[in-house]
Design goal:
The protein has 119 residues and is an all-beta fold. Helix content is 0%, strand content 60%. Strand 9 and strand 10 form a beta hairpin. The radius of gyration is 14 Å and the shape is elongated.
Length: 119
């Protein structure tokens, strides 16, 4: 069994910052790619940012230059630093990880954390 536990969401004013964390625990041999996705009300879930085990990153155009994804492999944790937040960043943010245990790799999702950007 694997769990992804997210933290760091909340209410912030436009222009503010938040840092999301997601820690993986359980039956883990290695973690391949990790990422953050988000889903706004009435919209489909979309990619925000991903990071490979080697540290290569990918960002949605809408967050480039404002969000930074990073990971601590020793702690099985991925972070999302969000700066210059806009009201359109309001969404539930979900952590995702591709986790290998022995010979099997499976995708896992966190429970989601709410980010609300509003004055």
């Amino acid at each position: 069994q694997v769990q992804l536990v997210e933290s760091g969401g909340g209410l912030v004013q436009p222009g503010g910052s938040l840092r999301l964390s997601c820690a993986a625990s359980g039956s883990i041999s290695t973690i391949n790619a990790m990422g953050w996705y988000r889903q706004a009300p009435g919209k489909q879930r979309e990619l925000a940012a991903t990071i490979t085990s080697g540290g290569s990153t990918n960002y949605a155009d809408s967050v480039k230059g404002r969000f930074t994804i990073s990971r601590d492999n020793a702690k099985n944790t991925v972070y999302l630093q969000m700066n210059s937040l806009k009201p359109e960043d309001t969404a539930v943010y979900y952590c995702n990880a591709a986790i290998r245990y022995y010979f099997r790799t499976q995708d896992y999702w966190g429970q989601g954390t709410q980010v609300t950007v509003s004055s």
